[in-house]
Amino acid sequence: MVLYTSGTTGRPKGVLHSHSTLEFTLRRSAAHWGIEAGDSAIMPSPVTHISGYANGLEMPLVAGTRTILMEAWNADEALELIEEYGVVGTVAATPFLVELADRARAAGKRLPTLRFFACGGAAVPPELIPAANGAFENLRAFRVFGASEVPLVTYGWPQDEALAATTDGEVVDYEVRIVDEDGREVPQGTEGEILAKGPAMMLGYADKAQSEAAITNDGFFLTGDLGTLDASGALTITGRKKDLIIRGGENISAVEIEDVLRTHAQVRDASVVAMPHERLGEGVCAYIICEGGQPVAQSLIDHVIASGLAKQKIPERWEFVDDYPRTASGKIRKDQLRADVKAKVEGGA
Questions:
Q1: Other beta carbons within 10 Å of 86
Q2: Which SS3 state, helix, strand or coil, does residue 89 take?
Q3: pLDDT, tens digit (0-9, with 9 covering 90-100), for 332-345
Q4: Distance between CA 169 and CA 235 in Å, rounded?
Q5: Angle at CA of residue 316, ends 260 and 338, nearest 5°
Q6: CA–CA separation, 69 and 48 (whole Å)
C-alpha cells in the first residue's frame, strides 16, 4: 500500500508499506500501552496518513478495539466524544493534547476513562506532559518518535512521568544510530542525525530515486531528525536538520530557542525559522502565538537573554500570528513560515 508523508518540509512523498510492517507496530504498541479488546480510541488524524490509517483503521482489526473517527480536530467535540464513548486514548499531534487539556480544565471535566495520549510530531516542552496529566483523572501522556517511513521507533514511557516528559521514549525493536555530518557514529549522549532500521520500516518510497537517497547501503533510514541516545535506550529529539539556522557559519537550534520562548508568560506557542540575512546568510525569526495580549518585543528579547542563551540566538525578527499553517494532522508547516518571512524580507517589509 502507499501512504503519504505529512509534507511538513515540502511535497508529500509516497511511502510503501505492507500490512505486516504495520501490524507489527500495532501489536507492539497495544501491549506497551495496555490497549485491550473492546477499548475505544479517538482518531483526529487523517486516515490517509500513517497514524490515522494504522491506529484508526487497522488497530480494530488487530486488537479488537473500536475507533471513533473525527472529520477534523476540534477540542470541544473531542471532549464530548471521549465522554460519550468512554475513550481510553489516542495517538495524535502535540498541539491536540494541549488544546484538549485546556478545554477540559475550562469545562471542569476530568474524563476518567482517558488513560493514554501518545504525542509527537512537534517539539514537546518538558513541563507540557505533567501539566496535561494534571488536567485529567487517570491520563498518562507520553512522547513517542516515529515517521511514516519508520513508524514508532519509540513507544514512550507511560509508567514514568519524568522520562515521558523529558525524552521521546524507549527504543524498542529498532536499531538506532546517531551520526555526525560525515555519517560517523557519535559518542553516547552526543547530538547527531537519527538513523533507524527495524521490522516496521517502510519497503521504500514510490519513487526509487527518493529511496536511494534516504536509505543507507546497510539499510538504515536517514530520518533527518536530530537527537541523542542514552545508555537506557531513551531517545530525545533535539530538532530537525532543516530546523538548523546557519548564522554566519554557526549552527543554531530552532528548538532550543522555542523551548525558552514558550516559558514567557505571554507566549502560548513559538515557532522559530531561518530568514534571509544579507551579511550572515541566515538570521533568526520567531513566529509567536500570544497568550493574554501581545508582548513587547523587548520583553521577549530580555527573556531570551535571561535564559542564558548566547546573543546570536536572539531572534532578530518577531511575527505575531493567531495560528500556524498546519498539515491535516496538526504539524506546523515550517516550510510555509520560511517562505512567508523570506517574501517579507525580500519585499522590504
A1: 15
A2: strand
A3: 898 899 999 999 99
A4: 6
A5: 85
A6: 12
Q: Is residue 88 a contact partner of residue 115, using CB atoms and an 8 Å limit?
A: yes
> Are 197 and 175 a contacting pair, CB within 8 Å?
yes
3-class DSSP state for residue 266? coil
Q: Spell 165-175 as b/e; 16+ CB within 10 A means b.
A: bebbbbbbebe
* Calpha distance 105→82 (Å, rounded): 15
Mode of pairing for the β-strands spanning 66-69 and 40-43: parallel
Q: Is the pLDDT of residue 118 over 90?
A: yes
Q: Rounded to two decimals, what is the model's pTM?
A: 0.76
Helices then strands, each counted (H, E), the chain: 11, 17
Cell 472529520 belongs to residue: 71
Can you list the domains of the chain with their CATH numbers? 2-239 (3.40.50.12780), 248-346 (3.30.300.30)
Q: pLDDT digits over 59-111, tens only?
A: 999 999 999 999 988 999 999 999 999 999 999 988 889 899 999 999 999 99
State the CB neighbour count (10 A cutoff) for residue 264: 19
Q: Is the dihedral of CA 48, 52, 56, 61 positive or negative?
A: positive
Quote the DSSP letter at residue 154.
B
* Sign of the four-CA dihedral 200, 203, 205, 209: positive
